[in-house]
């Protein structure tokens, strides 16, 4: 007879204090153990892995599937139409490796470099807008629109369609009423279908055309794979970059000695970007995983099919891995963080993300030598999300 191991009591760490500052909660959980059974805000249970060693190892453990079909608890998560759900975040090898080989042909250094001048020009235009305002919310007036301009160029969205496209994306991430998310997803889905059909008939020098043309020994992406990957590029390429720009500037403003150093040494920007990724990445968790068999993580038994969340933000502040992990240091030597993932699911758009963040911050610091917060730092509001530690607004004075 198989011995049943009783589930431990549920911890409930996700309260308002957590939303405002999750790092003390992570520190407490790390000190208590490597994995914890927690109650998510919707009431469901999950296992939260908090220590860097265990998180890094789990990211490459093939027994941990990203496919929701392996859930034994009825996990739903962010519900998408079937045609959008077949993307790199939801499939395991060997299908993942097949798609990754094809998609990587659209993320070549040439494709990313092609966007460098456009990213810089868009940042300058938005900086002009900020300068005219004098005081503004950096999130809505600079950080949010910049990545959407880049994604618009990346997918070659016609200029006339960019405003509604941008509005649908914003509504998807910040719905104004129940059902708004599903409505926005439906509109984006049909928009991408039409865009793919247009690009197939009239290919150009853009990522979507490259994905349509990508082949590997005669293999190519199906229609559903194309549209789901375009949707993933849209989601991952807009939201994370938006939050990183505002969180990155806030980190610098809260550490004036580091800000002064970066102003005097612009060549330190690549290191500053890496430290921002480690210290202030908004994405708290890797994509959820489900054990395909009973496993142990750091000696903690986890049953088959239960939801496992690998906490990247906690791992990146683990004192057993990083010296003084709560210190923001743009000259930090150890930059092997997990903010962009590790192993099979390492972010394909990492080079583009680094380009956007570095260009955005360099533009802001060069154009606005006296930029400062327009409100006390402790009055800033954060989104009530356990997945994304992101600012609602960042009021700044640039004059």
Commentary on this structure:
By secondary structure, the protein is mainly α. It has helices spanning 16-20, 23-32, 52-58, 82-85, 95-104, 109-113, 116-133, 138-143, 145-154, 162-173, 180-201, 207-213, 223-254, 256-264, 269-280, 312-315, 350-367, and strands at residues 35-39, 45-49, 64-65, 135-137, 290-291, 295-297, 300-302, 308-310, 372-373, 395-397. The longest helix is centred in the middle third of the chain and has 32 residues, at 223-254. It is globular, with a radius of gyration of 21 Å.
Instruction: Please identify the structural class as seen in this structure.
Output: mainly alpha
C-alpha-based Rg, rounded:
21 Å
Overall, the morphology is globular
Q: Kindly estimate the percentage of residues that lie in beta strands according to DSSP.
A: 5-15%
Element-by-element helix/strand order: HHEEHEHHHHEHHHHHHHHEEEEHHEE
Provide the fold topology:
Blueprint: H1 16-20, H2 23-32, E1 35-39, E2 45-49, H3 52-58, E3 64-65, H4 82-85, H5 95-104, H6 109-113, H7 116-133, E4 135-137, H8 138-143, H9 145-154, H10 162-173, H11 180-201, H12 207-213, H13 223-254, H14 256-264, H15 269-280, E5 290-291, E6 295-297, E7 300-302, E8 308-310, H16 312-315, H17 350-367, E9 372-373, E10 395-397
Parallel strand pairs: 2-8
Antiparallel strand pairs: 1-2, 3-5, 4-10, 6-7, 9-10
Helix pairs in contact: 7-9, 7-17, 9-13, 10-11, 11-13, 13-15, 13-17, 15-17
Task: Identify the notable features of this structure and list them briefly.
399 residues, mainly alpha, three-stranded mixed sheet, three-stranded antiparallel sheet, 17 helices, globular, disordered N terminus
